[in-house]
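Running log. JK asked me to keep both predictions on one page so they can be read side by side. First protein, sequence followed by its tokens:
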Amino acid sequence: MDALRDVLDWLSGRGLEVVLIILGSVLIARFISWAGNRITDRIDRNATGGDALVRSEAAKHRHSLTQVLQWAAIVLVYSISVFFVLDRLGVPITGLVAPATVLGVGLGFGAQRIVGDVLAGFFIITERQYGFGDVVSIQVVGGGDPAEGTVEDVTLRVTRVRSANGEVVTVPNGQIVKVVNLSRDWARAVVDVPVPSSVDVNRVNEILREVGRDAFRDPAMRPLLLDPPTVMGVETLGLDEVNVRVVARTLPGKQFEVGRDLRARVVLAFRNQGMKVSQPTTLEAHDGATAVQEQVR
């Protein structure tokens, strides 16, 4: 009976405190998660205007920073609750300092990669290399095919990218050696149009200028273009053909859509003039200092 009474006394005293601490920490963590999701949803609504791809750089940074702070706050809440629970259970916390130090040293040698991932993630977020919603191409240690797609999540440890096929690729931040951001501030679609060297290049330039003016006047294309497409002129010379380049500045991530539309307009305009594009055109998608080339059949 004495043992049962002691158990009941403990449950009504320290046991109840332990239960309340655990429940309190779970509720606080859930509240932090709910508040963080509300904040990120509001950032997305204000920044995208209904378009999940085009976001301002400040909004991308705020979204990523909110996710990191949310994760850090939840870890802090659970860590503090563990110390309070140990204290209520009568475990001497000061006596755990020495074993914890030894364990920390051992984990430090075994968790160097995790530490490297966290440090790399910290610099990715603070330097605003990329953020939620950016279209990126990430090269990892060891080479191989880069991870390409839209960034869905950036934490201190990993970056998650959804590819064009719908696959989710998780990349540890410490393994990233190169990032090509295709949606930083603005993008550029470059279409090289090969034409026979016997044609009148001035006539070709005039046709391409008219194509650019029509695209800029099109209500469906106008929101994607920052300014009218520009005909740069002859880019390369060959024995039988020359390449005439057309450049268009677009909203971030929209360069591929604009490039496809311009190519279709060029083919239609040349057909109406009794001309044809003899070879596949090449599309270059620029974001300032980087480019990705796509062969179009």
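And the second, directly underneath as requested:
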Amino acid sequence: MGEVELEDNVLVIRRIHAVLKLKAAAGHREAAERVHGFYADKCPVYRTLRGAIQITTELVFTPDE
């Protein structure tokens, strides 16, 4: 999901919110939350854009049955 604003009659992306949906065994939840806490710093796209666009993420964990 992104939010845009008008700047000099041009739409500009200001914010991006990514919802990461993960379906996995319940025993993997702690590892998934730990990785979610640091993965962005290892992501080339995030590191390229973070100075220009506010980027947030949310982890939605669904236990696999």
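Observation for JK regarding the second prediction: The first strand starts at residue 2 and ends at 7.
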